[in-house]
Write a structure and sequence with these properties.
The protein has a 7-stranded mixed beta sheet, with helices on both faces. α3 runs antiparallel to α6, α5 packs parallel to α6 and α10 packs across α11. It has 16 helices and 20 strands. It is globular. The longest helix has 21 residues. By secondary structure, the protein is α/β, with parallel strands linked by helices. It binds NADP nicotinamide-adenine-dinucleotide phosphate. NADP nicotinamide-adenine-dinucleotide phosphate (NAP) binds next to α8 and α9.
Length: about 475
């Protein structure tokens, strides 16, 4: 399929490609040059209610289909994703800006999630529980939760939807999804492929437009039994509040503030490699990106000098060009946020040792930056940076750094580099994070539960846990046997 076929500029509702009822559209721009790529419908509550009605109708039959039928469709979807990997990756870079190699990786992991859940549903076993009396059998069974509302962010516009569509469709749920307005085409491309491989009408519905109106209609509908959201903690809290009215199940993948701890005994080559990937992937715009580097005093100067050199060597440019490692930030407010954090840090004694300014390429390109002498009173100690800025704190001992690492309301990802086995286990216990990488800066994989503690979220995506979030558990007592 060509990119033009993949790049749908309409919404997908009840198996049809539709415009907004009032015909209004929203422009979508390429962040690398600010040029308009196309438009998408500006839908609102009415269109969302139609999509929910279609999903509720489709649920009646989809939830009753044979598991083997759903598995077969998911396997076809997995194959279609890989067949179209290059076109999907180019579309992703066009609307989001990340380097093409990263986009190819995002399509591959999205496909891997689909395959994982196609396999995992075959192991979603119930139980026959030993009964206290012999004339009874006690059954515990699992059932699809119902219509699912899915709301996704712009930083991983394809794979974040994969982590929701995969388990929902495998479980027998139907879906009404709303992608981020900045990056709608990667999500609409999922609908193109779902239609192509033969998912029945109404099973997958994807709407673009007003987040408040579409989100409001999803949250207030009694037909939507579960909402799965990936995005900021602020919006996540609003959705949790709204979910109370109809007592929906919720899964929340929210913001992070990852510490990256380098002890004196670390393998410095490995630590630099992990630092670069965990900090600068997607230009620093991932929820699991390193936000705070904590480096022990004995290795601090060497680490800073090597991190600074590696940061200076990063190739910045249009993500479509070969060799580019850093694309543009998503929009100008993301640039302003990084600038504000640099100004705050330097006013409080932080030293910019690399970068620190907008890039000569203009637009939303920013120089990959390193700041040393970071302190706990600086804004990036508590707030998510979401940009290519490395903040380096110095520490003396293990207890001090564990306390500093945990001194945040977030609890998504943490990284540590050490070769002391005892310390590895102490860190695994003490760090209040849902994902912990020891001697690795890239740990996401489909086989494990991904999700945060504290204000970083509720529920897990991936692993067997990622499927159970889409299943209800029932108990049936059969007496008089
Ligand atoms: P965001 O502003 O919270 O937006 C996320 C999604 O929510 C978008 O589709 C957005 O639509 C929609 N939205 C905004 N306001 C809404 C409302 N009142 N009701 C319903 N929907 C609403 O987050 P973002 O800036 O796109 O993404 C960055 C954030 O996501 C970061 O905090 C990052 O850490 C987090 N994230 C977390 C994970 C994880 O797995 N934990 C993964 C990736 C990203 P519009 O685009 O139309 O506004």
């Amino acid at each position: 399929m060509t990119i033009a076929n993949m790049m749908q500029q309409k919404c997908f509702v009840a198996g049809a490609w539709v415009n907004a009822d009032n015909g209004q559209t929203i422009a979508v721009n390429n962040p690398a040059n600010g040029e308009q790529i196309g438009t998408v419908p500006n839908c609102g509550a009415d269109e969302t209610e139609k999509a929910i009605a279609a999903a509720a109708e489709a649920f009646k039959s989809w939830s009753q289909t044979d598991t083997s039928y759903r598995v077969d469709l998911l396997r076809k979807l997995h194959a279609a994703l890989l067949e179209n990997q290059e076109e999907l990756a180019q579309l992703l870079t066009l609307e989001q800006g990340k380097p093409l190699a990263e986009s190819r990786g995002e399509i591959a992991i999205g496909a891997a999630y689909i395959l994982w859940f196609a396999e995992e549903i075959r192991r979603a076993k119930g139980e026959i529980v030993p009964a206290p009396a012999n004339d009874r059998k006690l059954l515990v069974t699992h059932h699809p939760v119902g219509v699912v509302g899915a709301i996704t962010p712009w930083n991983f516009p394809s794979s974040m939807l994969a982590r929701k569509l995969g388990p929902a469709l495998a479980a027998g749920c139907t879906v009404v999804a709303k992608p981020a307005t900045a990056t709608p085409y990667s999500a609409l491309a999922w609908a193109v492929l779902c239609e192509q491989v033969g998912f029945p009408p109404g099973v997958v519905n994807i709407l673009t437009g007003s987040s408040r109106d579409i989100g409001g209609a999803i949250m207030s509908s009694p037909h939507v039994r579960k909402v799965t959201f990936t995005g900021s903690t602020e919006v996540g809290k609003t959705l949790i509040r709204q979910s109370a009215e109809t007592v929906k199940k919720v899964s929340m993948e929210l913001g992070g503030n990852a510490p990256f701890i380098v002890f004196d005994d670390a393998d410095i080559d490995a630590a630099i490699e992990g630092a670069m990937i965990s900090k600068y992937r997607n230009m620093g715009q991932t929820c699991v990106c390193t936000n705070r580097f904590y480096v022990q005093s004995g290795i601090h100067n060497e680490f800073v000098s090597r991190l600074t050199q590696a940061t200076a060597d990063l190739c910045v440019g249009d993500g479509m060009q070969a060799g580019v490692e850093q694309g543009p930030l998503i929009d100008i407010s993301a640039v302003q946020k990084v600038e504000q954090m640099i100004a705050d840090a330097t006013a409080k004694g932080g030293q910019v040792v690399q970068g620190g300014e907008r890039h000569a390429l203009g637009g939303t390109f920013f120089q990959p930056t390193v700041i040393t002498n970071a302190k706990a009173n600086m804004q990036f100690a508590t707030d998510e940076i979401f940009g290519p800025l490395s903040a380096v704190f110095q520490f003396e001992d293990e207890a001090e750094v564990i306390a500093a690492a945990n001194a945040t309301e977030f609890g998504l990802a943490a990284y540590a580099y050490t070769r002391d086995v005892g310390r590895v286990f102490r860190l695994s216990d003490a760090l209040e994070y849902g994902l912990i990488g020891i001697n690795s800066g890239l740990i996401t994989t489909v086989e494990v539960p991904f999700g945060g503690l504290k204000e970083s979220g509720l529920g897990k995506e991936g692993g067997s846990q990622g499927l159970s979030d889409y299943l209800e558990t029932k108990y049936t007592a059969i007496a008089g046997i």
